[in-house]
Design goal:
Elements (H helix, E strand, L loop, with lengths): L17 H4 L9 H5 L17 E3 L2 E3 L6 E5 L6 E6 L3 H20 L2 H17 L1 H12 L3 H21 L7 E2 L6 E9 L2 E5 L7 H12 L3 E5 L5 H13 L7 E3 L4 H10 L3 E7 L2 H13 L3 E5 L4 E5 L5 H13 L9 E7 L3 H12 L20 H17 L1 E4 L18 E4 L5 H4 L6 E7 L2 H9 L3 E2 L1 E5 L3 H10 L4 E4 L15 E2 L11 H6 E9 L16
Parallel strand pairs: 7-8, 7-10, 8-9, 10-11, 12-13, 12-18, 13-16, 15-16, 18-19
Antiparallel strand pairs: 1-2, 3-4, 5-6, 6-21, 14-15, 17-20
Helix pairs in contact: 3-9, 4-6, 4-8, 5-6, 6-7, 9-10, 11-12
The structure holds 2-aminohexanedioic acid.
2-aminohexanedioic acid binds next to loops.
């Protein structure tokens, strides 16, 4: 351990959450029954917390299926058990999606939008149960679990309206009596591969956009949040999405994901996840000349200048770094701090963390829940060990143990003071670990902020309007916030990043339509004679 450590790093107040909401208090809900929406689609439905695959409008469990389970990262309790899908299951799902495509494509887009409105209505009615499920299965605190679902609702509603837009262009012709225009057409069968950190929002970003534009979908969620995925699919089915239009295949990325990306029916793959997997998906998809849309990692900086409103910046950094236990692509993982306010701001941060409750994510008083899994815990703790060797630990730096903590995966919020260029200041950790880097000027701040492989989100706190606009121009990122944290993008705007964060695309907002449509260019000649573009154009005058 570094001798530069400021004695024992202090810890947050520990919330003895076992006393308030132990496992017995966590009930497993059955949304279909609770909502009274007329039960489940035909076929063998989910039973209790056992789920099948959803293929061609039917819940099905293949005869020799092996199962896996998801667990609550705060308590270890089982949340649901699921089928580990095979390449055969993927083939059945893509065939069902291909069969369903012609009729879904011909369904008028406004009608497809109406189905989405019904999905949103049902999701709103189930919001509190779904939000609790997000928290139980993934571990984010309940306000964020509900926020996850709200983001899904917002996006589905937004996309429902898109059913009455899906704008093309009209462009003048160089010839007489000729119209030129573009129309948007669906791509066909698309694969949506989603992560566990936003288990309802991100699947809906993809599925709702793909469906309103007339595609059919095979959905492969992260295994850790398969129950959230199953409940979403159920909602779509209940809302009237026809059989085969949305299919769910749970299971391992190496099996289900690869089979999906390789499948000849699949024309577009929309993937959110880690950069290594993303690269593999891109390479595989390239073999079939598929469109592969990638949303990958981040190493998002907040620059706090010496003129910043420090209490405001404090709240922003706390929420950005430790919201969702730092497990957002948009999480604030670097604080680029002006030397004139360095010790003062760091002191405020450490002080505030002393009153930051880590514990039961279902308790509204809790600031941060567990990290999402044992794998996450191990990876984060390994990075913390790296940090202890190369940087100065200013807060936390350990797993939380004792009492109810022993049932789950709790890591203390952690702050390192580090030079720019260390591993912890450049690699994505995806956990509650903040690297603080001292800078002496705006120019240095931007240099540090940009000198990483990723470019998703970024932020600057300053009261200088010129500096704010310079940062908007200078920061290499898909998203820049001014006087706000790096997290919390709204669904009606494009979302995505530069450098290793992706491969150039954006999702959400109007960009979502680009992601899932082909443009057809149309020329209509109503002159009743052969007109030759480029050749007759001069005489057309
Ligand atoms: C992600 O972590 O991949 O902007 C998505 C945000 C959320 C979405 C995050 N609206 O933080």
């Amino acid at each position: 351990m570094s001798s530069t450590m400021r004695g024992e790093a202090p810890g947050p107040k520990i919330l003895p959450f076992g006393a308030r909401a132990g496992p017995a208090a966590l009930k497993i809900d059955n949304y279909s029954r609770a909502r009274g929406t007329g039960g489940v689609p035909r076929g063998s439905p989910k039973m209790g917390s056992e789920y099948g695959l959803f293929i061609d409008g039917t819940w099905t469990t293949p005869p020799k299926a092996t199962r896996f389970e998801t667990t609550n990262p705060a308590t270890g309790e089982t949340v649901g058990t699921f089928v580990a899908g095979t390449a055969d299951d993927v083939r059945r799902a893509t065939e069902a999606a291909a069969r369903a495509f012609p009729s879904w494509r011909e369904t008028p887009a406004p009608k497809r939008g109406e189905v989405l409105l019904e999905v949103a209505r049902r999701m709103r009615a189930a919001k509190s149960e779904l939000g609790r499920l997000v928290t139980r299965e993934m571990g984010k605190v309940i306000s964020e679990g509900l926020g996850d679902v709200q983001e899904a609702i917002d996006f589905v509603e937004y996309m429902a309206g898109e059913g009455r837009r899906l704008f093309g262009e009209t462009v003048p012709s160089e010839l007489r009596s000729k119209f030129c225009l573009t129309v948007r057409q669906p791509k066909g069968v698309v694969a949506c591969i989603t992560p566990w950190n936003f288990p309802t929002a991100i699947p809906n970003w993809k599925i709702a956009a793909a469906l309103v534009t007339g595609n059919t979908v095979v959905f492969k969620p992260a295994s850790a949040t398969a129950r959230c995925a199953a409940e979403i699919v159920q909602l779509y089915a209940d809302a009237g999405v026809p059989p085969g239009v949305l299919n769910l295949v749970t299971g391992a990325g190496g099996t289900v994901g690869n089979a999906l990306v390789d499948d000849p029916h699949v024309r577009t793959v929309s993937f959110t996840g880690g950069v290594d997997t993303g690269r593999e998906v891109y390479v595989r998809g390239a073999q079939g000349l598929k469109m592969v849309h990638l949303e990958l990692g981040g190493k998002n900086p907040v620059i706090v200048m010496d003129d910043a409103d420090l209490p405001l910046a404090l709240e922003g950094v706390l929420f950005g770094a430790f919201g969702t236990a730092g497990q957002r692509c948009t999480a604030t993982s670097r604080l680029v701090l002006h030397e004139k306010v360095f010790e003062r701001f760091l002191g405020m941060l450490v002080d505030r963390l002393d009153r930051f409750l880590v514990g039961d994510p279902l308790d509204p008083a809790t600031g941060m829940g567990p990290v999402a899994s044992l794998d996450q815990e191990r990876k984060i703790l390994a990075y913390i060990e790296v940090g202890k060797k190369e940087a100065k630990l200013r807060y936390g730096g350990e797993k939380l143990t004792g009492g109810a903590y022993d049932r789950g995966h709790f890591v203390r919020p952690t702050i390192f003071e580090t030079k720019h260029g260390t591993r912890i200041s450049k690699e994505e950790i995806f956990g509650p670990v903040l690297s603080v880097i001292r800078v002496g000027s705006y120019e240095e701040a931007v240099r540090v902020a940009n000198d990483v492989d990723y470019g998703l989100s970024s932020s600057i706190y300053t009261r200088d309007v010129n500096l704010a606009f310079r940062a908007i121009q200078d920061l290499e990122a898909g998203i820049t916030y001014v006087n706000a944290p790096t997290i919390g993008a709204e669904v009606q705007l494009p979302f995505g990043g530069v450098k290793n964060t992706g491969n150039g695309g954006r999702e959400a907002g109007s960009a979502a339509v680009e992601e899932f449509t082909e443009i057809k260019t149309v020329f209509v000649d109503f002159s009743s004679r052969l007109q030759k573009a480029q050749i007759d154009s001069e005489t057309a005058a």
